Input
Amino acid sequence: MSKLPKAHLAMLGVTIIFGLHYSIAKSMMPGFLTPLQMIFIRLLGGAILFWIFQQLFAPEKVERRDLYKLALCGLFGLTLNVGFFYVGLNYTTPVDASVIHVTNPILVLILASIIIKERITTQKLFGIFLGMSGALILILWGRHLQFGGQTALGNILVTLNMLFYSLYLVIIKPLVKKYQMATILKWVSLFGFIFIIPFSAKEMLSITFIHFDWYAWGGLFYIIAGTTFVAYILINIALKQLTPTTVSYYTYLQPVLAAISSVYIGMEQITLPKILAALLIFIGVYLVTSRKNGFSFLKKMAKRK
Output
């Protein structure tokens, strides 16, 4: 298998991991852990795993000037991204959070064009528009957003989380081409953990692990090993071949996978809006990821029909 299909498979894996993360993280707060406790444990566990992984498989030194860039990636990609997500999710709902995350590809496209001069094309813009439309149909069909009280605060914090994650995807792209994946993630996770210590160390001391049941331990393992370790490895693998905008577009596949799983276990049924939404998202995927003129291909397909 060539490198490009592997990159897309990597992002499909990330999509599945992040899609399950919403509900797992929400179910653990605040019953088992506060948001700051969750952040501390996740970043500490991630830093340990990445440090061991790098020492075993890819020992490599980095230039001193790049340590500042890696520190910035740790701040944006883990400390602020994860921090605002957990605190925001504690106040808002998984539905609201997933709707806000639909803005990710637009933010990444704008930031990438400014910071690393990624070219904005009509094809990419149209693909993102189609994907956003399909994702919103899937997320909001038969549901509603909440804007009052603490939910509004949570939505603001999740919006900031999305902004910092978008910055991370753009800033780390040049480093991915220069260093091995394990080296980057070792330093990013270490800096991310260091930056969160002043805000979460006090709450960390009050955790009572004795009250954890099998679900809590399983959820914590998933968040550290899956959402932090495996997901960030897969993101870096994908960034070696794909643009930040393409990587961010996979956010739109999360509600598709959620809908498929709901139909499979009998919680929901296949409906026309769901079929339309999935079609919009997959056409959008093609337009955003295609290196050829996607519009001409779609015209040919339409003529054949």
